[in-house]
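User: Can you fold this complex?
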Amino acid sequence: MIWLPDGWAKAVIGGSLMAALVLLPAATEAPAESAPLPFYGEHQPGIVTPPPGFVYFVAYDLTTLKKTEVQALLKSWTVAAAQLMAGKPVGDATDNRLLPPADTGEAEGLSAAHVTITVGAGPSLFDKRFGLEARRPPALADLPAFADDQLRAEWCGGDLGVQVCADDQQVAFHAMRNLTRLARGVAVLRWTQAGFVAKTAVDPRNETPRNLQGFKDGTDNPNPNDTALMNQVVWAQSTDGPRWMVGGSYLVVRKIQIRVEAWDRDGLKDQENVIGRQKNSGAPLGGLAETDFLGTALTKKTADGQPVIPDDAHVRLARGDGSVKILRRGYSFANGLDFKTGQLDAGLLFLAFQKDPRYQFVVIQKRLAGNDALNEYIQHVGSAVFAVFPGTQVGGYLGKTLLD
Amino acid sequence: MSGICARLIVTGLVAASLGLLLASCGQQSSAPVANSPAPVSHAMSEWAAEIASYRNFVIDQVDALLKSTKDFTTEINEGDIAEAKAVYPVAREYYERIEPIAEAFGDLDPHIDARAKDVVAPDGWRGFHRIEKALWLDQNISDQAPVAAQLLADVKLLRAKVETVDITIEQMVIGATELLNEVSSSKITGEEELYSHTDFYDFVANVEGAQKIFTVLQPKIQAIDANLVQTISDRFASLLGAIGAYKQAGGYVSYNALSSDQTRKLSQAVDALAEPLSNLGKIVKGSSQ
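Assistant: Here's the predicted assembly.
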C-alpha cells in the first residue's frame, strides 16, 4: 500500500480505503480546524503533525560565547513557543505605554492557525565555543559534498535551526519574528526561507500537493500516523545514539532552485520521463493510478525490453529498492525575480526528517546527485542539517537534555 | 524627523514654538498641551537631577559644535580643501550625539543636516552635506562661502535655542533608542555620508549619545532591573568593541571599505543593543497614558 503524503489529512486513493481507515488511529487524525496543536510532548510538533500551508525555515548563528545565554535563549523560546502555539501573544502585557509591546501584535485576534515551532541544533553548535564537542551525535555528521551541488555559503548551515509552520503566512511570520526578536543579542539570523504548499482550502479533492514543476510531490512519503514506522524512520531511539537525542529527529534542509523557464519549455513526454510519473494523475509511467505500487512499476519493460520508467528517472533513483525512507514536508518557495537572469527565483524548500541522515538522506541523495535526469532542471543552492531536540514537558525547555 | 519632538517644550517660547513643533511632527502629536502641565512638573521633580545632567551634556555638545563649525567654515572660506576634509567628520560628531534634541527645532535640522535626497528643491539645499559634496565629489569649494556662512548662522541659532530647551524624562528614554535607530536607518547603509564615507564618525557619535543617556539614568535603572543594566552595558561594550576594529590613526576607516558581511555584523550588533535599550522606559512610573 502506498500512502499519500497527506496520509496526514485524509488517506488513500483507490481500493484500499477501508484498510487505510483501519490503520489511521483516531487520536492522530488532523485536529479540528480551530484547535491548536499541543506543544508539550515526547516529540516536538511540526514533524509528524500535518504540514499546513506555510513555512518559515530560519537558521540562526549564536553571537554569545556563554552557554548560560544559550540555555536562557532556548528557555525563552520554549515559553514563547508554548504561548504562540496556544494562539496567545508572547511575553507579559504591561500598562507602561513608554515600553514597546512584548508581542509585535500582528497576530492579535487571530487563531493559532495550527502554528508549530520546531527547534534543532546544527553541527557548528558542537564546536569549541560551548564545550559540547563530546555531545555531538554521530548522526549529526556534516553532509558530504554531492555532485551537482551549487551551494552558496549564505544559504548554508546555522548553529540553531527553527521550522515554523502555520495555516496562515502572517501567523507563521509573527512566530518567527518574535522568536528572532527574543534572540537579539544572543543569536542573529543566518539565513531564512519561506515556503508554501496548496492545502485543502484550494484543493477540494485533497490530492497530493503539487510542486512548482506541476507534479504531485511526496506520493511515496511514509505514513506519519504509523507510529511503528515513524519509530523506524524518524524518531531517534535509545539504541541509535546519545541519550539526549532519544525522541528527537534529524532535519535535512535543502534549498533547491528550479530552472522554471527551462522546465516550462520541456515537452510533456520528456517531463514525465524525467520524473517517472504521469504529470496529471501522478501514476507511475505505465501505470493507471497514483497509488500503483512504484516498486512494481519500476520493473516494467517496453516491448523492446527498455524500462518503461527510464533508468535516470527521478522516482527510480529516489526510491532505490524502497528500503531507505525519509519523512518529507514538501514546500515550494518563490522569491520573486533573480535580478541577474531576469528569471523567476523559485524552487523547492526540501525539509526531511529522519533518525540518521548518514543512512537515509545521504544514501538517497548520492543516488540522485550526478545521475538524476531532473538535475538538468534543478540545482541545490542551500543546505543545512540539524539535530532536532526531543519534545519537552511543562517546566522543561527545548534542548534541556543537551545543555543541562 | 524625530517622533519625540512633539513632547518638547521650549521654556518661554511655549506658545510660539508649539505651532512650529507640532507642524514639524506631522500626525504624531499625542503632545503635551499648554493647559496640562501637571505630568511634566511631576516628572521634573522626580527626574530633576538626571535631566539637569543630560541638559548640561546637550549644551556642552552644542557649544563644541559651534566651535568646530567655526573651524570648519573658516577652512571653507580660506579655500583649504584638505583641512576642511579633516575637520568635517569631527565637527559633525557633536551634532550626531544630540541628534534627537536638535531635530526638535523645526527646520533647523534639515538646514544643518539635510542630505541631497532629503531636499525637494536642490537650490535650497544647505548645511554640512552640501559642503561635503563640494569637498569630496566636486572637489571645488569656490562657491561654498555663502553656504558656510549660512551653516554657521544656523548652528548659532541652534545654540541660542537649545539654551531654552526643557527636556523630559520620556524624551531621554525615547531619545536613546532613536539614536540607535538613526544608526540603523542611515549610518549602517552608508547613506549619511554619501561622498566622504565618514559614516563611522556619525555612527560612533550616535552610539555615544545613547550611552550618555543610559549612563545618566543607570543608577535608577539599577535599582529596578539590575539585569537590564548588565545586559545594556555588555552590549554597549560589544558594539563599541566591534567598531573599534575599524579605527585607524586619527579616526576611522572609510565606510565604503566594509564588506557586506562586516556591515551586517555591525547592524546586528546595533539591533542587539537597541532591543534591551528600548526597555529603559520601565523606570518611568505613571506612563500608562
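Chain A touches chain B at residues 63, 94-100, 181, 184-186, 188-189 (CB under 8 Å). The beta strands of chain A are 54-62, 116-121, 160-166, 187-196, 249-258, 327-338, 343-354, 378-388.
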